[in-house]
Design a protein that fits this description.
The chain is of the alpha+beta class. The chain has helices at 2-21, 23-60, 77-85, 144-150, 197-207, 240-252, 261-303, 305-313, 318-357, 370-395, 401-405, and strands at 66-69, 75-76, 89-95, 102-108, 111-121, 139-143, 157-166, 169-183, 192-196, 229-230, 232-237, 257-258. The strands form three sheets. It has a six-stranded mixed barrel. Strands 3-11-1-12 form a four-stranded antiparallel sheet, covered by helices on one side. Strand 7 and strand 8 form a beta hairpin. Helix 1 (2-21) crosses helix 9, helix 2 (23-60) packs antiparallel against helix 7 (261-303) and helix 2 packs across helix 9 (318-357).
Length: 407
C-alpha cells in the first residue's frame, strides 16, 4: 500500500513538473476549457434564474395553486374525502353556498367593511398556514386590506353582522370576534375574513332561518340540520405541476373548475423554450469541448512521445503512464474550472446589476445553486478523463526503443 502511494505521489510530482515546464501549452489547454465552461455557466444561470424567479412568484401567491369550483354543487363527505386522497391535493375544506359567505365587519362607527368575503380555513391552509390557528368560533383572521379599512390590529375585537329576512322582517345576527392575525396582501389581496368552518356553517344556518348559538336571536326554527354535503370547496394543489392533473380529475367527476392555467402554462412554456435553447448550445459547446480536449491532449501526447518512451524505458508501466496523463488532465481541468467560476461570478454580478435594474419585479435574473456547480465540476472532470483515456491508448503503445532510436 505504501509503495502504491509513493508511486502515485511520484506520478503527481512529475505531472506538475511537466505542466510547469510546458507553461504555454498548459495555458492554452486551460484557456480552451475556460472558453467553454464560463459561457455555459452564465447561460444556465440565466435560464435557471429567470425560470426559478417566475416559479417563485407564482408559488408566493397561493391562489395560483387554487382550483376553484364553479357553481353550487352537492359535495358530500365521500366526495370530499376522495379529493383529499388524491396525490396532487394539498388542502381541501368545504364551502357553503356563495350567497351565504358574506358579512359586514365593524370595528367602530367610522371603520367598517360591507359585504366582506367570509372564507373557511384550517391547519395547512396555503394562505393562513404561517398565522396562528383558530381554536374557537370567536376568532378570525383578516386580510390586510380588510384590517386597513377597519383600522384593526391583532388582538382587536370586531363585530360580524349578517342580515336575513324572516317572515317579512329583516333580522340581524351579531357576534364578537377576536382578530388573531392579519394575512399579508401578497397572499390574499381582497377584503376578506378567514374563519373556522363551524362559524361559516352557523352563518348558513342563520341565513336559512334557524336559530344560532353564535348569532343569537329569539326567532327562527330550532335544531338546524347537520351538514352532510356542501355546495363548493376550497381546493389547492401541491405544486404548479399538479394543478392541471388535479383539475382534470375533478372535471372527470363532473366538477367544473377554474384555475390560473394561463399563468402556469406561460411559465412552463418559458422553461421549455429556455431548456431547448440551452440544450442546443450546451450540446454544441460540449462537443466542441471534447474536440478541443481531444486535439490538445493528442497533440500533447504526440509531442511527448520521446518523454513517454523514456518513462517506459526507466520502468514505468502502461497503467502508470495512463495515470500520469489522467493526473495532468485533472489538474488542468480543476484550474480551468476554478478560473471559470471566478469569471462566472463576475458575469453573474454584472447580469444582476444591469438587467435587474430594468426588471423591477425580478431583480435577480442570474443565479446558480451550489449543487449546479458541483455537477458542472464533476462533468468537467469526467469529460476530460474520458478524452485522455481514449487518447492515452496511443501513449501506452509507445515502445521504449523509440527513445533510443531518437538519441
Amino acid at each position: 500500500m505504501i509503495k502504491v502511494i509513493a508511486k502515485w505521489l511520484l506520478v503527481t510530482k512529475l505531472s506538475l513538473a511537466d505542466l510547469w515546464y510546458d507553461k504555454k501549452v498548459s495555458f492554452c489547454i486551460i484557456a480552451s476549457i475556460i472558453s467553454v465552461i464560463t459561457p455555459l455557466l452564465l447561460l444556465f444561470s440565466l435560464k435557471y434564474g429567470v425560470v426559478s424567479q417566475l416559479r417563485q412568484q407564482l408559488l408566493s401567491d397561493p391562489q395560483n395553486l387554487e382550483i376553484k369550483v364553479v357553481g353550487n354543487l352537492q359535495l358530500d363527505n365521500a366526495k370530499l374525502d376522495w379529493i383529499k386522497k388524491q396525490p396532487e391535493t394539498a388542502f381541501v375544506i368545504p364551502l357553503t353556498r356563495s350567497l351565504n359567505t358574506q358579512a359586514d365587519l365593524i370595528n367602530d362607527s367610522s371603520h367598517f367593511v360591507n359585504n366582506a368575503e367570509i372564507i373557511p380555513t384550517d391547519s395547512h391552509d396555503p394562505i393562513t398556514h404561517t398565522l396562528p390557528s383558530l381554536k374557537s368560533n370567536n376568532q378570525i383572521l383578516l386580510s390586510s386590506l380588510a384590517a386597513e379599512k377597519m383600522q384593526a390590529t391583532i388582538g382587536s375585537w370586531i363585530k360580524m353582522v349578517i342580515t336575513r329576512q324572516l317572515d317579512g322582517k329583516l333580522e340581524k345576527g351579531i357576534t364578537q370576534l377576536e382578530v388573531k392575525g392579519i394575512i399579508p396582501e401578497s397572499r390574499y389581496s381582497r377584503v376578506a375574513a378567514f374563519v373556522p368552518l363551524d362559524l361559516l356553517i352557523e352563518m348558513e344556518n342563520f341565513y336559512d332561518g334557524y336559530q344560532s348559538a353564535i348569532f343569537l336571536t329569539s326567532t327562527g326554527q330550532l335544531n338546524p340540520p347537520k351538514h352532510t354535503s356542501f355546495a363548493r370547496a376550497r381546493i389547492y394543489a401541491n405544486s404548479l405541476d399538479d394543478v392541471a392533473p388535479l383539475s382534470f380529475k375533478l372535471r372527470e367527476q363532473h366538477i367544473e373548475t377554474r384555475t390560473q392555467a394561463n399563468a402556469i402554462e406561460n411559465m412552463q412554456a418559458i422553461d421549455r423554450v429556455l431548456t431547448f435553447i440551452f440544450s442546443v448550445i450546451a450540446i454544441t459547446a460540449i462537443f466542441g469541448c471534447i474536440l478541443s480536449f481531444t486535439g490538445s491532449f493528442l497533440s500533447n501526447i504526440e509531442r511527448k512521445r520521446k518523454d513517454i518512451a523514456f518513462m517506459r524505458l526507466i520502468g514505468f508501466q502502461s497503467h502508470e503512464i495512463m495515470l500520469y496523463l489522467i493526473t495532468q488532465a485533472v489538474i488542468l481541468s480543476c484550474l480551468a474550472f476554478v478560473i471559470s467560476c471566478l469569471f462566472f461570478l463576475l458575469g453573474n454580478y454584472v447580469f444582476n446589476m444591469v438587467l435587474g435594474k430594468n426588471l423591477v419585479s425580478q431583480p435577480i435574473v442570474s443565479q446558480l445553486q451550489f449543487y449546479h456547480l458541483t455537477i458542472a465540476f464533476l462533468l468537467t472532470l469526467f469529460i476530460s478523463s474520458i478524452v485522455v483515456i481514449i487518447g492515452g491508448r496511443r501513449a501506452v503503445k509507445i515502445q521504449p526503443a523509440e527513445s533510443l532510436r531518437e538519441v
